[in-house]
Amino acid sequence: MNSNVTRYQRFALSLLLLLSITSKVFANAENEMAAEGLPHVSITPQLCIIKSDDERCRTEVAIHWENVSGVVCIEADSDSFHAWCASSTEQQSHTFTLDTDTDVHFVLKDKASGQLLAGIDFKTTLVAKQPLRRRYRNPWSLF
């Protein structure tokens, strides 16, 4: 039992360490892009966890963008999201309800030129199922 606890603790610590490192890498990349004046897009939330293959993820999603000079349009590779265009250059975010059972890739385009400015993914994943424990003793006995 103690070996299982320490195994799970090691796994949890290594996962936290990995998340910490990747968040620092992404934060540095975002700071570099902002410093260079490149278009940047972010999505909240980035991930949806579903219980089974036949379940759909239905959630409020917000897309934010920075360092964009013109009016933008958002397109996606999903039938659940219809292309949308901002009404002015001051608008820097869009919130909507997303209903999907697959990953969705969003792209930010310049409305006037159609030039691709940035892209971002919304991920869906199945919840991890707990492994079944094997019984070491039979439920019956001869004695």
TrEMBL record:
Superkingdom of origin organism: Bacteria
Keywords: Signal
Database matches in InterPro entries: DUF3019
Signal peptide: 1-27
The name this protein goes by in its record: DUF3019 domain-containing protein
Pfam families: DUF3019
Organism: Shewanella mangrovi
